[in-house]
Design goal:
Number of helices: 12
Structural class: alpha/beta
GO molecular function: catalytic activity; iron-sulfur cluster binding; metal ion binding
CATH architecture: Alpha-Beta Barrel
Keywords: Iron, Iron-sulfur, Metal-binding
Protein name: Radical SAM protein
Radius of gyration: 21 Å
Number of domains: 1
CATH superfamily: Aldolase class I
Pfam families: Radical_SAM
Helix content: 25-40%
Distance between the termini: 59 Å
Number of strands: 10
CATH class: Alpha Beta
Strand order of the largest sheet: 2-3-6-7-8-9-10
CATH topology: TIM Barrel
Organism: Roseateles puraquae
Length: 374
């Protein structure tokens, strides 16, 4: 990792406070790994650094960047992920989860994986049209598909733009199966589309519940729905006949790990029928961002947390190898899996994925460039 990664991104103000920013997971607009230039704070002799340290810094506002996507389906190339295609109507995520493994994707946009990832959200305005074109193509074959793998498809901006809803409308027309992973109660809005498809075996939903502690949730994933609200969403989906599971991911040693069994119990009581969990991953810029977060919020246990993560990652902060990156390895990773299986069995939760129903797929009508005249 180059030194530039821990510097302040050129696109941001020259001085960024290292204290936590209310409503944001990251405290810095750290430079991405492709940054060519470094920026350092410099005292010009007029006491500017001391003055800046005492000034009130306004929280960064969220910006929406509209984009016309060339394609919308991403093909999975990893053998340790159980789906074939993914759809991400947005890039970046306002939820601000400090641990999000997708943060480094903002580097490809020449944006910071820190504050930019959670404040500069790219909206793929033509997502539904691109999906329709793809599904209507003569060569397309239906496969398992997940909405929201590198973003939360129901993050706050979805209430205004409705890109995810339009994507689901196309999938409903084509009777194409899909899954969603989300932390948002916003998915309840689309029950009119999701419930009828669920009745045909075409939908499964997973709510990510990482903690039941409101105080921890506020700093871990500051703009996501509160834990109790997510449990009510599980209940609403289950009552509507939608298969709903709980994702206790990521598991962070000594942070949310002690809650694993209690989260599964609460999710089962709310109506969840399945569960899975993934140990925390720290790829690329996520590593320094996460360690900075640990030092800000849990300085007393930061070293112990990182030591246990390394125990599961072959002595490294992160292990990107296929086969182990989603599960970890070693005694502690084995213990986590055993705890999950034992607690899931106790509460009647499946730990295997549901089979995907592909037989009902019918290509949607093709979009007309000029629209219909009648």
């Amino acid at each position: 990792m180059s030194p530039a990664r821990t510097r302040i991104a050129a696109a941001q103000p020259a001085i960024v406070p290292l204290d936590s920013i209310k409503g944001r997971g990251s405290a810095t607009a750290m430079a991405h790994r492709f940054e060519r230039h470094e920026r350092e704070q410099y005292d010009d002799g007029w006491g500017s650094l001391d003055q800046a340290a005492t000034e009130e810094h306004l929280p960064p506002a969220t910006q929406i960047i509209e984009e016309q996507a060339k394609s919308i389906l991403s093909r999975n190339q990893s053998p340790d992920i159980s789906f074939d295609y993914s759809i991400n109507p947005y890039r970046g995520c306002e939820h601000g989860c400090i641990y999000c493994f997708a943060r480094p994707t903002h580097s490809y946009l020449n944006l910071s994986p820190g504050l930019d990832f959670e404040t500069r959200i790219v909206a793929k305005m033509n997502a539904a049209e691109r999906l329709r074109d793809t599904l209507a193509g003569a060569r397309y074959e239906p496969r398992s598909l997940v909405i929201g793998t590198a973003t939360d498809a129901y993050q706050p901006v979805e209430r205004k733009l409705g890109l995810t809803r339009r994507v689901i409308e196309v999938l409903a027309e084509a009777q194409h199966p899909f899954s969603v992973v989300t932390k948002s109660s916003g998915i309840e809005r689309d029950l009119d589309l999701i419930a009828p498809m669920a009745a045909q075996g075409l939908v499964s939903i997973y709510l990510s519940v990482t903690t039941l502690d409101n105080d921890l949730s506020r700093i871990l994933e500051p703009r996501a729905a509160a834990p109790a609200r997510r449990l009510r969403t599980i209940q609403a989906l289950a009552q509507a006949g939608v298969p709903v599971g709980v994702s206790v991911s990521p598991i962070i040693p000594f942070i949310n790990e002690p809650e694993l069994e209690r989260i599964l119990e609460a999710a089962a009581e709310a109506g969840a029928s399945s569960a899975f969990s993934i140990p925390v991953r720290l790829p690329w810029e996520v590593n320094p961002l996460f360690q900075d977060w640990l030092q800000r919020h849990f300085p007393d246990r930061a070293e112990r947390v990182m030591a246990r993560i390394r125990d599961m990652r072959g002595g490294k902060d992160n292990d990107a190898r296929f086969g182990t990156r989603m599960t970890g390895e070693g005694l502690w990773a084995d213990l986590l899996r055993a705890r999950l299986r034992r607690a899931a069995a106790k509460h009647g939760l499946r730990t295997e994925r549901r089979p995907v129903q592909l037989a009902l797929f019918a290509p949607p009508r093709k979009a007309s460039a000029q629209g219909s005249l009648f």
